[in-house]
Write a structure and sequence with these properties.
Ribosomal Protein L25, Chain P; disordered N terminus; ten-stranded mixed beta sheet; single chain; 467 residues; globular; alpha+beta
Length: 467
């Protein structure tokens, strides 16, 4: 397929590849494994795709609120995001005003604003047990310490604490060092994800017929930063084909879609890590971005995110609704699984709606949560996935929403931005990690509601969001 056959975004991607490679790739680079990160259930019910796999402002509690700060998308995308989905203007450029108090990006990006607040403005802050987030905060500190000297100082003081402080001491620590900034956006959405358990075998046979692949041998990634510095962290996934019209006789084209991978069968150039019992379980494993597999011997291994095919995520739940197969209230993860098992003859049709495909690596289970995009274990109920173009990875946040299907039951807690996801797009878009197993999956699969978000940043500093 030539570049001229692509849609405009893909056409631009090809043009950028040409800039980087001079129209070709002389030798296909070896596949690169990215850090494991669970996907926000990628969150099929919310139209997300996980990962499984860095986007913020300050004064005294009683200090006068500083002027609003415009929150704009930084020119980068999450490691596990479909990074060839370029922004509408395709070449976003950060433009700062003379007084450096605001920043904008070329049209087509989703914007938000940060509004300086005081702790009394944050609903539920005094009721949350801040000590429960202390461990997750310390996990974020290596990343935070690279951002500013203030963060380094705060993290040094936090690590100097003996053990985990009690609730009152932890809350006082955050109040003493950080200021809340409310994230204001035109749309907010809170979903959930978890780490599933599936049945699989190292050997194909009997019920174990569905492959879980490692990174393909022919998958290449092209970094665009050499051509357009503003597109640092954007990477195109593709493969190299012979093209006599190209200067070197080769060309990079988009990687195989889910349907094409399925149709290739045993000819697909990737190692099969495991054989699963249930194809819908494999699909949702990809949606979550990571999980655990129980083998016939009773042994368990972690199936962690390694790579993806670079295609955009498409919601199969949304497709079922559009076809009249399910209504919105039925389109949870559980509802989709029930539909798929009642219509096995239409399973390929359903799954092929989503061209995105995730490849994995096997790791031992260690009693900790799966690693997110920050490369630290996720903490159930305290780690969230965010759009790191707006919210820097590692940043403490306060989330105010409700429990799934329980609008009268507040869910308000201190959380840490430690993950990303393909469908987690927007300044006020949050995916809450619920943990491992069926109960966590029940909560994650039902979670799809609005929420409010506060960014917590060192006092006396304006968040460097969008820079």
């Amino acid at each position: 397929m030539s570049c001229t056959a692509f849609s405009r975004p893909r056409w631009l991607a090809c043009a950028l590849v040409a800039l980087v490679c001079g129209g070709c790739v002389s030798e296909p680079p070896a596949p690169v494994n990215t850090p494991a990160a669970p996907a926000t259930t990628t969150r099929e019910a919310a139209g997300a795709v996980q990962r499984p796999a860095e986007t913020t402002p300050a004064q005294n509690t009683e200090a006068e609120a500083a002027p609003d700060t415009e929150l704009v998308a930084a020119p980068s995308l999450p490691q596990n995001q479909a990074e060839d989905e370029l922004l509408e203007d395709h070449s976003p450029v950060l433009v700062e005003e003379e007084n450096a108090t605001t920043a904008t990006i070329a049209k087509g990006t989703r914007k938000g604003h940060l509004q300086a607040a005081v702790w009394a403005d944050v609903p539920g802050w005094a009721e949350d047990n801040a000590a429960q987030a202390w461990g997750a905060f310390l996990q974020s500190c290596p990343s935070l310490s690279k951002k500013t000297a203030a963060w380094r100082s705060i993290c040094t003081q936090a690590r100097a604490q003996r053990g985990t402080p009690d609730d009152a001491s932890a809350r006082a620590f955050f109040e003493r060092h950080l200021q809340p900034w409310r994230v204001i956006a035109s749309e907010s959405k809170v979903t959930g994800y978890y780490e599933p358990l599936i049945e699989a075998s190292r050997v194909r046979g009997g019920e174990y017929q569905w492959p879980i692949y490692g990174p393909p041998r022919d998958l290449v990634r092209v970094n665009l930063a050499d051509a357009v510095p503003e597109l640092r962290a954007h990477r195109l996934r593709g493969r190299v084909i012979k093209d006599p019209t190209a200067r070197s006789g080769r060309q990079v084209v988009p990687y195989w879609s889910r349907k094409q991978i399925r149709e290739m069968g045993s000819a697909f150039p990737a190692k099969t890590l495991l054989w699963a019992k249930d194809p819908i379980d494999v699909f949702f494993l990809q949606v979550q971005g990571s999980g655990q597999a129980e083998l016939p011997s009773g042994e368990r291994v972690r199936v962690a995110f390694a790579e993806h095919n670079g295609h955009p995520y498409r919601s199969i739940g949304g497709w079922l609704i559009s076809k009249g197969e399910l209504n919105r209230s039925q389109s949870s993860m559980q509802g989709i699984k029930d539909w798929a098992r009642k219509h096995p003859e239409r399973l390929d049709e359903l799954l092929d709606v989503n061209p995105a495909f995730v490849f994995f690596k096997l790791k031992p289970t260690d009693g900790l949560g799966p690693a997110g995009a920050l490369s630290v274990p996720l903490t159930p109920g305290r780690s969230v996935a965010v759009d790191r173009r707006f919210i820097p990875l590692g940043t403490p946040l306060f989330l105010a929403t409700t429990y799934p299907n329980a609008p009268s039951s507040p869910l308000r807690r201190l959380v840490m931005a430690q993950d990303t996801g393909t469908a987690i797009v927007g300044a006020a878009r949050v995916d809450l990690f619920w943990g491992f197993g069926e109960e966590a999956g029940q909560q994650a699969g039902r979670m799809h509601q609005r929420g409010e978000l506060w960014l917590l940043w060192p006092k006396g500093e304006k968040p460097n969001v969008g820079r």
